[in-house]
Amino acid sequence: MAEERAHETEPKNFEPKxxxxxxPPKDDPISVAELAKHDGQHEDYPAYxxxxxxxxxxxxxxAYGPEGQYKVFAGKDASRALAQSSLxxxxxxxxxxxxDDKEKKVLDDxxxxxxxxxxxxxxxxx
Length: 126
What we know:
Shape: globular
Distance between the termini: 49 Å
Low-confidence stretches: 1-10
Number of strands: 5
Strand content: 15-25%
Largest sheet: 5 strands, mixed
Helix content: 25-40%
Number of helices: 4
Strand order of the largest sheet: 1-5-3-2-4
């Protein structure tokens, strides 16, 4: 039992399996309409996913493309869906402040995961 508890408190390792070359983070304003164009369906617009308004370029990962398993997140702020481990389109919304502490921790873990794999290209603005 003590072994199980010790394992639960170990910090998660979010390092990618293979080294990733990330571009310097950008703080460019990106509107919701512009973000929506980056839904993985258009060659001219690489897929973007936003988490807590920070926009990541996930275009190099086919999982966010037209046939990808995570295409539902592309072109959206997927904060709530990621926090709740949901693939439902209706959960891909930016509202996350009312989540419980456990879900906020999950969301923070996803933010860390993305930040180690995908370049930050901007911030969603209203």
